Each structure stands twice: as C-alpha cells, then as structure tokens.
Amino acid sequence: MIQDIQLRVLPQIASDSSLIINYIAEEKGIDARTIKAIRIVRRSIDARQRQVYVNLTVRTYVNEEPIDLAYTVTEYPDVSKGKPVIVVGEGPAGLFAALRLIEHGLRPIVIERGKDVRERKKDLARIKSEQKVNDESNYCFGEGGAGAYSDGKLYTRSKKRGNIEKILNVFCQFGASTNILADAHPHIGTDKLPIVIENMREQIKKSGGEVHFQTKMTELLLKGDEVEGVLCHNFVTDTDETYLGPVILATGHSARDVYRYLAHAGIHIEAKGIAVGVRLEHPSQLIDQIQYHNKQGRGKYLPAAEYSFVTQVEGRGVYSFCMCPGGFVIPAATGQEQIVVNGMSPSNRGGKWSNSGMVVEVRPEDIANGDANDPLVVMHYQEQLEKLCWQQGNMKQTAPAQRMADFCKGKLSYDLPKSSYAPGLVSSPLHFWMPKEVAGRLQQGFQYFGKQRHGFLTNEACLIATETRTSSPVRITRDAETLQHVTIRGLYPCGEGAGYAGGIVSAGVDGERCADMLAEAYK
After folding, report:
1. Contact between residue 428 and residue 256 where contact means Cβ atoms under 8 Å apart
2. Terminus-to-terminus CA distance in the chain, angstroms?
3. Which pTM does this prediction carry?
4. In Å, how far are 205, 330, 343 from 423, measured between CA atoms?
5. Can you give the C-alpha Rg of the chain in angstroms?
6. H-type helices in 132-192, by residue range?
C-alpha cells in the first residue's frame, strides 16, 4: 500500500527519516517494520508561533518497495537532422526553450554572448581582486544567465503560466537535489547550480543541438515582417557569423544593447515598471532569532530563516525581494561606471549574513523629466542611478552603504558593520543622494517592517546600494496567443529579458511555452 500522510511535527522529528517512520507508525497504528520506505512529497516550516513546526506530506510505502524515481524523466531525442531554431541567450529561459525544442524534434542553435559557466567564474573573481567588470562575462552575462550565480532560488508565484513541476523535475534530472520537489521554497544553491547547467548544455549538444559561447547577437536578419535569422559577432575569432532560422530571443533583463538595437531598428518595445532600492544585510543569527522567536536562533534542526515583507507607501509597493538566508551580497554590474548589487546563497545557506533586496516600485510615469514616449525611459533611469552609485562608491566596485537605523534617521554612519560584500563598502548618506521617491518610501517601509518584527530595524543591519536589476525595464511586445512579436513573424521574445518572467522558474516556464508555440507554427 502506498499512502500520502499529512504530518505536523517538531523540527527534530522532521530531520530524521527513522523518527518520521516511528511517528507515522504510532499515529496511524502501523507496524513500523512494515514501512519499507518513505518519501517527503511536501515540506514547509510554520514559524508563526513560538513553537516552530514542520508540515510534511510523506509518501509511505507499506509492505511495498518504491520502484519509481523521485522525479519524472524527460526523453530527449536526436535532432541533428531537425529544422534549426536560433535561441539567443543561455539563461533559464534559453536553456529550457532549447531543451523543449528538442522534445519537439527541432534543432536548437544556442547563441551566448558570455563564457561557459566554469570560465565565467574567473571573471567574477576579478571583480573582487581587480575591481574590474568584464562587459560580456559577469554575474548577468554568461552560461546560466543571472540565475547561475545568484542563488538558484526556484520559488515562484506564477502558478498559472505553465508546468512548474516540469521545470523542477528537469532540474532534478540534470543533478539538482530532489528536495526541490518537496520544499515550499525550493533552492538549489550557487555552489550546485553551475553543475546542473553544464549537464543541461551537454544534453543539448548530445541531442544534436549547438551551443556557441562568446558569440553576441548584433542584428536580426529581417525580410519584410519576418525574421530569417541573426547576425552575430564571435569574440574569439573576431569574425561575424550568420545563423538562419526562427528566433527565440531570451537575452535577460540586463542586455541593454539589445534594447537599444530594437528601439533603433523600429521593432516595437515599450517601457515597463521596475523596482529599485538596496540590499539589506543582517547577521543571519539575528534573523534566525527574530523569525524563530528564539534567542538561540535556528538551533540544530532548522534551516537559516527567511522573511518576506510587503507594504504600500504613497501608492507604490515597498517590499523584500530575492531573500538570501545565510548568503552574501555580490557585485552584479554588467558594464563600466556602474554599481549594482544582488544576493546569493550556497546550498547549505550557512553564511554569517542574510540579505534581501529592499525595493520600491517605480513606474514609467514616476520618472521626473522622462520622455513618456521613449520606450527606454526606465532603462535610462536605471543607468543614471547605477552611475550615481558608482560615483558615490569612489568610482570602483566598493559599494556605498549605511547602517539601517541611521538611514531611517537621516544620519551618516561613521562606521559600518562587517559585510559579505567582497569588493568592500564605503560609508555614504544613501538617504541624501538616492532618489527621494525611493529613499523616502524605503524609510517609511522600514519603520513599518520594524514594528512587525521586533529587532528587524537595527543598526546591526546595513543597506548596500544599489539594487536595480529586479526585472526588465522594457517589454518586448508579443501576441498573447502565439507568443510571437506583435509585428515580426518568427521572433519569440522570451523570459525575463522580454518582460514576461521574474526568476528562474517562471523564465524556464516561459522558455518552454515559446518553444511550444514556435513548434506549432513550424507545423
């Protein structure tokens, strides 16, 4: 007999499969010796009260051995003779689009401006050691996209867009822990995700697809209102290359040169709202104490605590974003004269600090002196704020920062707490030079969050500027039914960079949807 059993247990019991089996046996009157195996199907932590519980759905095998895998396997056929499809960008949207094309018998040709995931790590290290950003290989550009080295969180609220379970199962097939199928807030980890991405790439090649690194799309090849392929520049050979076929455009939210090209070429795009703010970093022990209502923190059996905050201030959302328990803050600039910060966590989330983006909603109409008819108006706003931040950071990757309580009081911090941000911090009056519509709302938001969680608003916490890449500042318009561009046939704007996703899973889902629609059009 196979039975799914709902449990609400103490963290110690949830941490040990033998204790779970004994608990089930006692609760359900089952002889423990007949329980041959268990599998955790769902797991979430309930920390609303002082006593923390873990909610479990446990698949229990009574007098039966599990013969199925913990995840569903997808078969990928040989498509070496299939029709070619160009996939521009090898982030989550591009990877899942390419794999889905293979399922449809089409041959993906993946074009990636950055380096492969291993070589990319060397350029990330230089940001810390030399304070230099490689314009084509950084935390946003390269194999795996922004998700590869920014935590690997797989939680999404976009339940209606597609098959989320499929995305998680594919990750497991290529090496992710099956824990992601059970956890309420699944997470692969910065240290584990690159290996998974490599395995996905090798599957594309094994099935007959192509992956070209350090190859940047410079132009769409158009014939009337239809795309015929792309023109690219290969940085290794310093030559131009042409690839023919319909195009899935999955270039990520930081490919500003692509947005400029589209605007210049008259391909319809529109400005889209974003959220900007700071990275807020606390000692992880303090967040554990606050969230678990315990001076001892998480203890032996609980993970690093997470939090989520949201409120409205003067008609705009103020909220936490991309929370990284036990993680660290990273430099995520993609060009010169800009500072951008993001967060990531290793799989064990065992770091000394916890951080999250704390951001304010900014709409196109909020931008002073902005051209309402300019589709790049929000992108220009991003660029100006990132350059201002770079100037405040001594024109290096040292990030301007301020203690949290000082920021709320409008005071300069004369010293700063220790931080995970490797390039270093410099004390700066963020309350003074950040846009008033952002700084003022953040101050009010922090006061509100501090009342919700005693101890959260503290000078032990540090604000690190500036968090600007929460989403794309542009939407590349497409038809709601076919997912093709509204005016260009054969062009499928895709994922976060096109303005239709927000995170790894939703980008993967959108990649699969675009591949499905393209395959249908091919038929």
Report:
1. no
2. 45
3. 0.95
4. 37, 9, 14
5. 24
6. 145-148, 164-173
